[in-house]
Automatic annotation (TrEMBL):
To bacterial alkanal monooxygenase alpha and beta chains. It comes from the Bacteria. NCBIfam families: oxido_grp_1. Gene3D superfamilies: Luciferase-like domain. GO terms for cellular component: cytosol. One of its GO terms (molecular function) is oxidoreductase activity, acting on paired donors, with incorporation or reduction of molecular oxygen. Pfam families: Bac_luciferase. It comes from Epilithonimonas arachidiradicis. This is Luciferase-like monooxygenase. Residues 21-295 form the Luciferase-like domain.
Length: 330
């Protein structure tokens, strides 16, 4: 089967843009992705980040789905501990009712923010020993037709055609995805260190389910592509600066390449940056084809999810074009 390719969009706020402009860009990106043959377009739930506007993930999913026609749209992911499972079932059941057969529900258990903000989000429901597996099964119950006789039902939601995906960056998530027989999406775009061992665990322990007969591996990586290697590296400085800002807790919108200060970072930050960026691929079409051919051979994904911060909107769309051409040729 041909390798599928998709996009993770954080609705990144770049310097000089407001929220409305950011959402307009996401719409245009999704429409462009649809034309390029991308399979799905996901948003990830983040909170309290001045450069990320995807906090109300389900609302944004609905807006993007309304502006496209065939593209699957979903979450990569909803941070389940921040919500009641009933609420998630109702939201995504509503989305499925509006856009049948086009909605994905990727689930994570990280807070998607700092712990102070997580506490504010969850209020009295904050639980440091959150049972992710239990709540996934509870969500599956609400989405199933078998819940029709229950006292508490998800309307909309019950019987909705919304596939679930387990997101993760650790071996714990790999074991869980395998146990539940669900597709597994690994976040190698920011936490690649356990990628290889997590995929081995998922493959070895996978148990077929009513949802999936065999393992389905999705890997999110960063791709910064341009028509020349030099231009790609120039554009990538905004992306690497965003990583540095995370590491140093300097929260601000995405900066243009000319305002980045990567030469001034400490050795310690540089070490962590290199670890975070281990699965960031920068280059022109020829360079990326060589790198991604090896990546495909090493990890054997069923689907590559493309992420990556580029300040200039038109250059970002060109990067998607090159990425789609390269992945289709693998």
């Amino acid at each position: 089967m041909a390798l599928k390719y998709s996009i993770l969009d954080l609705a990144t706020i770049v310097k000089g843009d407001d929220i409305n402009k950011t959402f307009q860009k996401s719409v245009k990106s999704a429409q462009h992705a649809e034309q390029l043959g991308f399979t799905r377009y996901w948003f990830s739930e983040h909170h309290n980040f001045p450069n990320v506007a995807s906090a109300s993930t389900s609302i944004l999913i609905g807006h993007i789905a309304s502006q496209t026609t065939t593209l699957r749209v979903g979450s990569g992911g909803i941070m389940l501990p921040n919500h009641s499972t009933l609420s998630v079932a109702e939201q995504f059941g509503t989305l499925d009712g509006l856009f049948p057969g086009r909605i994905d529900l990727g689930l994570g258990r990280a807070p998607g923010t700092d712990m102070l903000t997580a506490t504010a989000l969850r209020g009295n429901n904050f639980n440091p020993n959150y049972n992710f597996e239990f709540h996934i099964k509870e969500l599956q119950k609400y989405l199933s037709n078998e819940n029709a006789e229950a006292k508490v039902r998800a309307i909309p939601g019950e019987g909705a055609d919304v596939p679930l995906y387990i997101l993760g960056s650790s071996t714990d998530s790999a074991f869980l995805a395998a146990k539940l027989g669900l597709p597994y999406a690994f976040a190698a775009h920011f936490a690649p260190s356990q990628l290889e061992v997590a995929l081995e665990i998922y493959g070895e322990h996978f148990q077929p389910s009513e949802f999936l007969d065999e393992p389905y591996v999705m890997i999110c990586i960063n791709i910064i592509a341009a028509d020349s290697v030099d231009e790609a590296h120039y554009l990538s400085t905004s992306h690497f600066q965003a990583f540095v800002n995370i590491l140093t807790d300097q929260r601000q919108p995405l900066l243009p390449p000319d305002e980045t200060e990567l030469a001034d970072i400490s050795d310690e930050v540089a070490l962590h940056l290199n670890r975070m960026a281990a699965k960031t691929f920068v280059g022109d079409k020829e360079t990326l084809k060589e790198k991604l051919t090896k990546f495909k051979k090493d990890y054997k994904p069923d689907e590559i999810i493309v992420s990556g911060n580029i300040f200039d909107f038109d250059k970002k769309q060109r990067s998607y074009e090159i990425a789609s051409e390269v992945i289709k040729s693998l």
